[in-house]
Design a protein that fits this description.
Elements lengths: L15 E10 L4 E6 L3 H8 L3 E4 L4 E4 L4 H9 E2 L10 H8 L4 H14 L17 E7 L1
Antiparallel strand pairs: 1-2, 1-6, 2-5, 3-4
C-alpha cells in the first residue's frame, strides 16, 4: 500500500534535503564528502553530453569527461563548499588523477543524485560510507 502524500499548493512548501555521504577513497588516501547534485547541477552535468548536428540533422552524444564532471560537481569539503568551485578546473585536475578513485566518487554521486537506477535498492548502504542529510530552503 502506498503512502498518501499531502498535495503541494505552493513552491514554499518544497523542502530541499540534499543527501551527502562521506566516502573513503583509498586510491587518494582521503575520504571525501560526496553530495547529491541539485536539479540544476544535473542539467549542467548532462548538457555537454548532447549536441545537435545540423549537417546530418541528428543528435550527437559525447560521453567524454562524464565521470570526472560528476565528481567535480559532487565533491564538497566538511563545511559543504565544493572542492572545485570552478567545475572546468576540477575536470582538468581530476582528469590527471587515477581513474579508480574517480570511479568510486562518481558511483556514489550518481546513486545519491538518482542517476543510477540499478542501485536504488542499496541507497545509503555504501560500505564504509556515512550518510547524512542537510536541509536548505
Amino acid at each position: 500500500m502506498s503512502k498518501t502524500l499531502p498535495v503541494l499548493s505552493s513552491a514554499g512548501q518544497i523542502k530541499v534535503e540534499i543527501k551527502k555521504e562521506l566516502v573513503p577513497v583509498e586510491e587518494w588516501g582521503y575520504a571525501v564528502w560526496v553530495h547529491e547534485l541539485t536539479a540544476g547541477d544535473v542539467d549542467a552535468y548532462r548538457q555537454p553530453m548532447f549536441s545537435f548536428d545540423t549537417d546530418s540533422n541528428s543528435m550527437k552524444i559525447n560521453m567524454a569527461e562524464q565521470s570526472i564532471r560528476i565528481c567535480a560537481n559532487a565533491m564538497h569539503d566538511e563545511t559543504g563548499n565544493r572542492i572545485y568551485s570552478d567545475i572546468e578546473t576540477g575536470i582538468e585536475d581530476l582528469g590527471s588523477k587515477g581513474s579508480a578513485g574517480v570511479a568510486v566518487v562518481a558511483a556514489v554521486a550518481q546513486r545519491l543524485s538518482g542517476l543510477n537506477t540499478s542501485d536504488k535498492v542499496n541507497e545509503g548502504n555504501t560500505e564504509g560510507g556515512r550518510t547524512a542529510h542537510s536541509s536548505s530552503a
